[in-house]
Amino acid sequence: MAREQTFSILKPDATRRNITGEVNAVIEKAGLRIVAQKRILMSRKEAETFYGVHKERPFFGELVEFMTSGPVVVQVLEGENAIATYREVMGATNPANAAEGTIRKLFAESVGENTAHGSDSAENAKIEIAQFFSGNEIVG
Ligand code: DGI
């Protein structure tokens, strides 16, 4: 296992319900360290770029609408095997299928409004971190 960084977003449903601290507690209990964090309003362009791989999917418009509907908290998480660990801690995309104790099982409202994003590969983690953070904002 390697010490890795992954990119996380606490989505607008989390900021709207004022539960970002509760989600962060789950992240930290899982052994991941929040080494960068900021609250931002994502622009439409940023959301379209970020979710570019989904642009042909029927839910793309809805996804961009949602991600720009309120503040998000973007984060860099660090830890052993952080990418896979965080995917596990988040749970399945659809909260109905998410395992007990996962962020999406605990907090998510629907497949669209599912509280958290986490990178799915080392390559994407690097790209996603670079989209939102400069090196000096990440303090391990
Ligand atoms: O990596 P994930 O976030 O678990 O899942 P993904 O990369 O397949 O999809 C990215 C996001 O797109 C997901 O977190 C929520 C949204 N999404 C995925 N499938 C659906 C969806 N939104 C709606 N409304 N309907 C879907 O079927």
From TrEMBL:
Entry annotation: catalytic residues: H117
Keywords: ATP-binding, Cytoplasm, Kinase, Magnesium, Metal-binding, Nucleotide metabolism, Nucleotide-binding, Phosphoprotein, Transferase
Chemical reaction(s) catalysed: a 2'-deoxyribonucleoside 5'-diphosphate + ATP = a 2'-deoxyribonucleoside 5'-triphosphate + ADP; a ribonucleoside 5'-diphosphate + ATP = a ribonucleoside 5'-triphosphate + ADP
SUPFAM superfamilies documented for this protein: Nucleoside diphosphate kinase, NDK
Keyword match ATP-binding: yes
Stored PROSITE patterns: NDPK_LIKE
EC number(s) per entry: 2.7.4.6
Enzyme class: transferase
Tree of life domain: Bacteria
Gene Ontology BP annotations: CTP biosynthetic process; GTP biosynthetic process; UTP biosynthetic process
Subcellular location: Cytoplasm
Subcellular location, principal: cytoplasm
Residue numbers binding ATP: K11, F59, R87, T93, R104, N114
GO molecular function: ATP binding; metal ion binding; nucleoside diphosphate kinase activity
Gene3D superfamilies xrefs: Nucleoside diphosphate kinase-like domain
Domain Nucleoside diphosphate kinase-like stretches: 3-140
Essential cofactor(s): Mg(2+)
Function: Major role in the synthesis of nucleoside triphosphates other than ATP. The ATP gamma phosphate is transferred to the NDP beta phosphate via a ping-pong mechanism, using a phosphorylated active-site intermediate.
Family: Belongs to the NDK family.
Subunit comment: Homotetramer.
NCBIfam families: PRK00668.1
UniProt name for this protein: Nucleoside diphosphate kinase
Protein source organism: Enterovirga rhinocerotis
Gene it is expressed from: ndk
